[in-house]
Amino acid sequence: MTLRISRRDFVKIAGATLALSSVPFSIGVASRVKSHSVSRLEVVEPREVVKTFCGMCGALCGIQVVKVNGRIGYVEPLIEHPQIGLCGRSASAIWLWDSPLRLKRPLKRVGERGEARFQEVDWDIALNEIASKLREIVAKHGHKSIAITHHDVWAYYMPLFSYLFGTPNTISHVGMCHASGTVARRHVLGAGGPPTVDPDYENVSYLLLVSRTPGTASMGVLRRLRSNRKVRIVVVDPRMPEIGLGDAEWIPIIPGTDAAFLLSLAYVIVEEKLYDEMFLKYYSNAPFLIKPDGRPLTEADLVENGDAKKYMVWDAKTKKPVDHKAKDIDPDLFYEGDVTLKDGTVVKVRTAFQLFRERCSKYKPEEASKITGIPAETIRRIARDLALYRGVVDDTWYISRNGNDYDDARAALILNVLLGNIDKPGGLCYMESPKFPSAVTVVTKEGKRYARTFYDAEMPEELFADVRVTRVDKAKYKATPATFDAVLDAILTGDPYPIRALFVIGTTITHRDMDVDKIREALKKLDLLVVIDVLPQDIVDYADYVLPDTIFLEREEFASVKWTLHGAVHLQKKITDPPKGCDARSALWVMFEIARRAFPERAEVLGWKSEYADYHKFEKFEEELVEKLFKKLADTWKIPVEALKKEVEEKGFYILKKKEYMVRPYRVALGTPSGKCEIYSLEALDLGLSPLPDYKPPPAYPLPKAEDEFYLINGKGPLISAHALLAEPMRFFEHIWRVWMNPKDAERLGIRDGDWIELESLAKPGKKVRGRVWITSMVREKVLFTYSFVGRTSKLLSEKHFAHVANGSINIAELNKAYVIPIVGGGASNTSVRVRRVG
Amino acid sequence: MTRLAHLWDMSRCIACMACVVACASANFPEHMRSTNPNPQWNWLASNIRVWWIPVNGRHRVILTQCMQCDNAPCVKACPTKASHYDAETGLITIDYKLCIGCKACVVACPYGARWIEPKSHMPNKCLATECTERIKKGLKPVCVTVCPANARDFGDLDDPESSISRRIRGSTTIKLREELGTKPRNVIVVRGG
Question: Residue B10 is nearest to which of A77, A223, A246, comparing CB atoms?
Answer without folding.
Answer: A246
